[in-house]
Specification:
The protein has nine helices and five strands, in the order αααααααββαβαββ. By secondary structure, the chain is an alpha+beta fold. Helix 2 packs across helix 3.
Length: 229
């Protein structure tokens, strides 16, 4: 027999996630309530809000548990079926894709602007990704290109790959971006050597390297801000 203390119906109507969303808007809901709207139901032992809270609380990682979740990981939670697991996987993927939309309309006026564009996508990567932001003469984003995946060194990130993208897209300047899976943002010796090499190549080719942004977990390092470019 179901314990009514654990059902969503035991919560006052005005406090139930779907009703709150309809009445006050999505921004009035907590993270666990938003997830509860997606999952809709819990289990016989806990309501959907309690289930959502349990997912977020694991390892103290919060929404990272959604973004980094896998089918098997989600199904390890009691009350998460194949259907619910795929719903969570779908919302995680949609959030990543939304973060990359309409980049061409964004103007980069500061290192923070570049970091904001790339942060939510790159902070969760488990490998090092090296990308470049291609800019026009007014510093509007033309495109973001992925150059390599793996440890940063001159054999993986080669100038010809970086500047071929810039030249093919008629970019007047570029911003280098890569992430540190450790969550830290301080540059390594290799990061500095590679940056200097690409800056010099850019001068020869007439494509300015405006900055190199290192993405950590919610933090970033700007070579320009630190006077290294």
């Amino acid at each position: 027999m179901v314990n009514n203390n654990y059902t969503i119906k035991s919560i006052p109507v005005e406090e139930r996630p779907q009703e709150k969303l309809l009445k006050y808007g999505a921004n009035s809901l907590s993270n666990s309530e938003l997830i509860a709207v997606i999952l809709r139901t819990g289990s016989k032992d806990e309501n959907v809000i309690m289930l959502s809270q349990r997912i977020l609380k694991q390892d103290g990682k919060g929404l990272r548990n959604i973004v980094e979740g896998t089918l098997d990981k989600f199904k390890s939670f009691k009350g998460i079926s194949n259907v619910k697991a795929t719903q969570l996987l779908a919302i995680a993927e949609i959030s990543k894709r939304i973060s990359t939309l309409k980049l061409e309309k964004i103007k980069i006026s500061s290192p923070n602007d570049a970091a904001v564009v790339m942060m939510e996508e790159m902070r969760y990567y488990k490998k090092e990704y090296f990308k470049i932001i291609l800019l026009d003469t007014k510093n509007n984003i033309l495109k973001v290109s992925e150059i390599s995946i793996g440890s940063l060194n001159s054999s993986i990130v080669h100038p010809r790959e970086v500047f071929r993208e810039a030249i093919e897209n008629s970019s007047s300047s570029i911003i280098l971006v890569h992430n540190h899976p450790s969550g830290e943002s301080e540059p390594s010796h290799e990061d500095i050597v590679l940056t200097n090499r690409l800056v010099e190549c850019g001068k020869i080719l007439g494509v300015r390297v405006l900055d190199h942004i290192i993405i950590g977990d919610g933090i970033f390092y700007s070579f320009k801000e630190e006077g290294l470019i």
